[in-house]
Design brief:
Two copies of one chain form a homodimer. Chain A is mainly beta. Chain A is built from three helices and nine strands, in the order βββββββββααα. Chain A has helices spanning 133-136, 150-156, 167-171; strands at 6-8, 12-15, 36-41, 57-63, 73-74, 83-84, 97-108, 111-115, 123-130. In chain A, the strands form two sheets. The first copy, chain A, has a six-stranded antiparallel barrel. In chain A, strands 5-6 form a two-stranded antiparallel ribbon. The radius of gyration of chain A is 17 Å and the shape is globular. At the A-B interface, β1, β4, β6, β7 and β9 of A face β1, β4, β6, β7 and β9 of B.
Amino acid sequence: MPSNEYALRPIGRIRTPHATVSDNVPIQGRMAPLSEGAVELFPEYAAGACDLEGFSHVFLLYRFHLGTDERLTVVPYMDTVPRGVFSTRFPHRPNRIGVTLVEVLGVDGTTVRVRGVDMVDGTPLLDIKPYVPRFDAVENVASVRTGWMTPYVNGVKEPDVVRTSSETDWLRERR
Amino acid sequence: MPSNEYALRPIGRIRTPHATVSDNVPIQGRMAPLSEGAVELFPEYAAGACDLEGFSHVFLLYRFHLGTDERLTVVPYMDTVPRGVFSTRFPHRPNRIGVTLVEVLGVDGTTVRVRGVDMVDGTPLLDIKPYVPRFDAVENVASVRTGWMTPYVNGVKEPDVVRTSSETDWLRERR
């Protein structure tokens, strides 16, 4: 491995109702808040799950493991215009790391039941971080600008219909 | 590299006022909202920065590149009790990925000026994601539980004094 690279190892798998990318995967977990799943930590990471049950929400960090493309300009699911990938949450991005905020329903050993999953079943987990509004949210919502996404996140579409509709769609070439 | 690992490559560096881990590094960016820095994307990623100027806040994903320890039980900076690492934001964690929400002050080519940095200068950047309250925040703040952190994030300590005080402290052995 070149010295300018880091080797990352999955610490578990995320189980979701979405067997493939064509299986109604929500484009964002918060847009499918009732979509239930589970984080299954590998047994050797069990000790890391202590104290997690005190938190109502966590960020899951994971690897977009399907596909190998890492693009800089993409047409996002919600848009028809090419955008710089760092202004999007598109999966085909440098390093292919995903971040999703989920609700914790319960912790049982190495299994964390969660709500609001938007991953394909079996997605490799890289980290779990507790959600702390003081660290992770902007208190003054009126001061937040969301660029090109603004019309899409302001309720133009119903949350639960904003999904990728097919594998072709998900993996499509749009540069 | 084993087949169960992913090779990640830095896409840039984060410049901050904190030359070393002993240099008053805030424990969280939102607790030092005026701490200014810059993201310097490597030139080959320039196209990815388009459209970023429309967003007021972004998440920076980065590698905790100092130290090699990856622990499962840690004593957090804010606490004196050992905790499961996934209930903390401690740097010495599996895969050592950090996530910090920062305010965007301006975008100039491959340089993104930001406020609220809590990294050591030169920290390798892995990704930039736009902050979208609809995706990343829990609307009903009263429904959020923050476990063991609750007394610490509810204003017990002044934000700008919650810093790591020394390199020894930052790297200390607390298992």
